[in-house]
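Lecture notes, unit on protein representations.

Consider one protein chain, 457 amino acids long.
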Amino acid sequence: MVEKAETLASINMTKYGIDTVLFFDEANTSDALGLIKEVMCDRRINGRQIVNNVKFIAACNPYRKHTNLMINKLESAGLGFFVKASETQQKLGKIPLRQLVYRVLDLPPSMRPLVYDFGQLNFNTEKDYIFQIVKNRCLYIPQVTEKSDVIQAVTDILVWSQNHMREKNDECSFVSLRDVERAMIVFSYFCQKKDIFINKVAEKAEKEQKHPVDDITRSLILAVSVCFHARLTNRAVFEEGVAKQFKAPLTLAGRDQFCNEIRWCQDILLDNMKLGENIARNAALRENIFMMVICIELRIPLFLVGKPGSSKSLAKSIVSTSMLGRASEKELMKEMKAVQMFSYQCSQLSTPESVIEVFEVAKSFQTEEQDVGSYVSVVVLDEVGLAEDSPNLPLKALHPLLEDGTEGADSSLQIVSREQRVAFIGISNWALDPAKMNRGVMVTRGDPDETELELSA
C-alpha cells in the first residue's frame, strides 16, 4: 500500500498539485504495527526511504479493560474454553487481550508522542448530527417531509435512546451515529411498507381495542425496537423511559402499548412462517425471526448473541425455509425477497481468506440471479465468537465487508450500494469486540423467565 501511495503521490503532485494521504485504520489491532511505526516515525519501508512526500495518518482503538463483572460473564459464556485467560499468549503487558474491550496491541514507545486523543462527541454536537441525519432521511418519506415537529420528535427519541445505551455497563453501551443511521433506514422501510406491516398491526390493535396509534409513531416504535430495544437484556427501564419520550405530534399511551406494538408485528411475521407442530412461539423465537427478516430485507448486518438453546439456529432454519420470494405459500412472504443462506462454521483455525471466500461465493450467487431485486444471499457465520480467539484475526476481514460491502483497501473507493450487498448474520454465545458489533445490529437473548418456560413447555 505504501508503494501504491508513492506512485499515486507522484501523479497527484505533478498533475494536480495535491497531497496524498495513506490512512491506516485500526493500526493497533495489526501484527504489522512495527512496520507501521517504521513508516510513520522513520519514513522508511523495509529500510529504504519513502519518496514523493506521502502523508500518513493512523487511527487507533482505545485501550480499555472490561469490568470484572463483564470478564466473569464472558468467561462463564465459554470464551476461550480451550485455554485459561492467564495462560493465553495474546496479551497486552500482563492483561489477556480477551479482557480488553477492543483487542488491541501495545503501541511502540516512539509512536506514543504522536497520539492525539479524540475522545467522543459532546451531547450537543451529537444532537445536531442526529437532527441532520433524521432531516436528510425524512426527505424520502412523503408522510414526514413537511412536518418539522415530527422531525424534532423523532430526533428527541433517538437522542434519548443513544444516551440511555451509553449509561449501561456492558456491551450495550457502545453506540455511535451508525445506530442512528440504521434506525432511520428501518423507520423509512416501515413507513414505505405501510400495506405489508403497519396496516396489519393496526388491524390487530383494533381487535384488542387499544388506544389508536398513527402510522409514523408505529413505524418509529418498530425502528427503535430493532436498533436499541433488542440489544438489551433487561428492558423494563428502557421501555418505561422511551415511552415517555413519545410526545405530540406522536401518539403513545405508555409502556404497555410500546411493547404490544412490537409483539403484534412479530406475531404477524410468525403467522406467515412455516413452523413445525412442536415449535413453541416463545419470545426468543418471535424476536429472532423478526430481527432476521428485517435485517435481511435491508441488508443490515445482524449479530445474534445468546446462550445455547435461545432459538438462534432454529430461527435461521425457519427463515430459510419460509422466505422463498414469489414461490412462498403465504401472501406476506411473497412481498419479501427470496433467501439463500451460505453458512460457515467458525473456529480457532479460521482465517480472513476463508471468511472472505464465503462472502465471494454468496455475492457471485446473488449476481447470477436474473431478478436481483427479489433475491438476497445471506452469509451466516456460526459460533462467530470462536473465530475472535484465532491468532489469524479472521474477523478483521468483516469490517470493510459489513461497512462498505467491499473487501477492503483495493476496492474501498467503490462502496457497494446497500441493495447490492449480501446480508449477514453472525451467531455467537457471547458478545464480540465492539468494533465489529457496532457495524451491525445486535440482539441479546437473556435467560427466559418462568412465563416463557411455561409457554415453551
